[in-house]
Amino acid sequence: MTCLCLGSKLKESDKVKLMVKLDLSCLHGIKDDMDFCCKLAKFPIAPILYLHQVQLAQAMEDGSGNGRPPATAAAWNFEPNGALLGLTALSVRGVLGRVKAGMAAGGGGDGGGGGGRAVIPMGHGDPSVFPCFRTTADAVDAVAAALRSGEHNSYSSCVGLEPARRSIARYLSRDLPYELSADDVYLTSGCAQAIEIICSVLARPGANILCPRPGYLFHEARAVFNGMEVRYFDLLPESGWEVDLDGVQELADKNTVAMVAETAKKLGIFVIADEVYAHLTFGQNKFVPMGVFGSVAPVLTLGSISKRWVVPGWRLGWIVTSDPNGVFQRTKVVESIQSYLDISADPATFIQGAIPQLIENTKEEFFEKTVDVLRQTADICWEKLKGISCITCPSKPEGSMFVMVKLDLSCLQGIKDDMDFCCQLAKEELVILLPGCAVGYKNWLRITFAIEPSSLEDGIDRLKSFCSRHSKPKVHRSLET
Predict the structure, then answer these.
(1) C-alpha dihedral over 417, 418, 424, 425, to 10 degrees?
(2) Is 69 inside a domain boundary?
(3) Measured CA distances, 472 to 119, 281, 413 (Å)
(4) How far is Cα 463 from Cα 430, in angstroms, rounded to an integer?
(5) Which pLDDT score, from 0 to 100, does residue 155 have?
(6) Could you tell me if residue 70 is inside a domain?
(7) Taking the complete model, does pTM exceed 0.70, yes or no?
(8) 407 pLDDT above the threshold of 80
(9) Fewer CB within 10 A of the end CB, N or C, for the chain?
(10) Kind plus residue range of the DSSP H or E element containing 251
């Protein structure tokens, strides 16, 4: 072809791609490389070339790769992003790592003795390792079928495979007064990436975001990393963890970009609804998605298959624009999400390919069984915690996998705060709890009850022994009061 010139620096035998120079002087009706590729793509048998604004690296002319050793620098002129260095303190993984470090250093058993006892994890959010929380065979079969088909070994589009997005739209529409479409759904690598994307999309100079306390500090970590201010509104423990709406209105201002439907409408902001624990309810209050109120205020719904299907390692989540009035389109939020996904990693294509069969074939009995086990373990947790004097549980859990309990440090000796409590508990009793500081609630504890019932009972018994061992004598306590 006279209009294409192969670069002499590139060897065809060494490449799966070739860089070629386009001679526009040989062509008519072609403005540039992008125009060339767009018009070429209209031919059904044409390859698609991605050449727009691609530059050959200077290293091809004068760097490593031409056989010459790289130059030695007098001093290294780089450093890491300092904003990352403190973010470990704002992650559940980071905090649990600190708790477990003391256990590893001490070997376990300062108080009760390790004695070959198993570690009991009651601070995590991943019950998939326990037999009573194994995912359904229908989900495994769906992934196996997607792999064996050979149809999902390539990259997907940046927003995700259309059949998967259409299936998720239908699945979520069951609970809404309107129908979602595939165009409302954007697939992500788990719900964590969905949070990352939304915080990046919202970030602008001076922006702030309202987050619940207690909450999930990953929201704060991503917001802080993107230069946003985080403001907290309280969930009220004495009212079943309801939102303090008065507090929300006091916190919001003209720079608040996101936060609860009528309140959001009044303030001119939208709602981010992290619904990764959707439908995992077992009390009197049923799950109602925030998208139900999408016509009042636009809602960005974040979710995944991680919790309901108990497969967090499969890393398949979504962002859904629950916005029947099209506010996100007019404000270019949708365009910004798509732009971010263009420069972001996709979830594994074969997991995307499995989604239609996974959703369609999973039987309701599997979901009911999971909720029944959670109800049983929540009951165990509620009843057994009543016997520990330094711990108060304000309300019986009716959903999710966790319960928040208040720690009364005045009853204990040798314990500085919630972090110290959890570190010493891990070291002495091999029980892992999450200190409340990891969810924005100092001197509280978050206890996971999504484990085997027998392990849960053993774990709370060990917790009780630890508290008894560190309890102040009653005479001492009466003198203090």
Answers:
(1) 150
(2) no
(3) 27, 38, 6
(4) 10
(5) 94
(6) no
(7) yes
(8) yes
(9) C
(10) helix 245-251
